[in-house]
């Protein structure tokens, strides 16, 4: 296996994706392929990475994972130096709204299903041909505590993350003979843009979600991902549930 591994990270412009890109650049033996909807944020991240870790090879491109055609075109036309993907980190995901099923907005449902589920499938399907030849590829899917426990008013978001959990297990079965590892990382409450996106820009409401306790950070999850990528070749970390100390499960959080 080459000392330098090429890693594709979706949703890399903020939160867990951004933190993971920074951590892997710090680790120093990865070539980074970063995509997200917000190209300006990716450009700022690339500048930061090259300032802090100038020897990093990095390629960025704008991508909305919901757009199947754009996914297929972008990945099939990666520059030659970045076209052999060793690691795929399916990080792009979001939640929209926090409503009971009878008053939820179908547009919100579509966006969650299209991003969290179909987008993950599109990216994985397009990346696998670039990975299968190496016989030592690796996929890390970012799930959620919502993949393990359904909570009130989380209905469709819960469903998409349960699907990510199921897909991770199914991918592991389908790809084991091809030498491709599949891991899933399921975070509890992480203070990123997640709640702000869920509440559609309501910063005050989002801020209250993380008050009076210490949530996880994107960096905490990036540390876990970094560890998964460092285990020996014969070892696979199948499934990781990561919670802040103050969160016991999807329903119980101790606040001071």
TrEMBL record:
It comes from Candidatus Sphingobacterium stercoripullorum. Coiled coil: none annotated. The lineage of its organism: Bacteria, Pseudomonadati, Bacteroidota, Sphingobacteriia, Sphingobacteriales. It holds the Pfam family adh_short. Keywords: Oxidoreductase. The keyword Oxidoreductase applies. InterPro entries: NAD(P)-bd_dom_sf (IPR036291), Sc_DH/Rdtase_CS (IPR020904), SDR_fam (IPR002347). This is SDR family NAD(P)-dependent oxidoreductase. GO terms for molecular function: oxidoreductase activity, acting on the CH-OH group of donors, NAD or NADP as acceptor. It comes from the Bacteria. The keyword Oxidoreductase applies. Belongs to the short-chain dehydrogenases/reductases (SDR) family. Gene3D superfamilies: NAD(P)-binding Rossmann-like Domain.
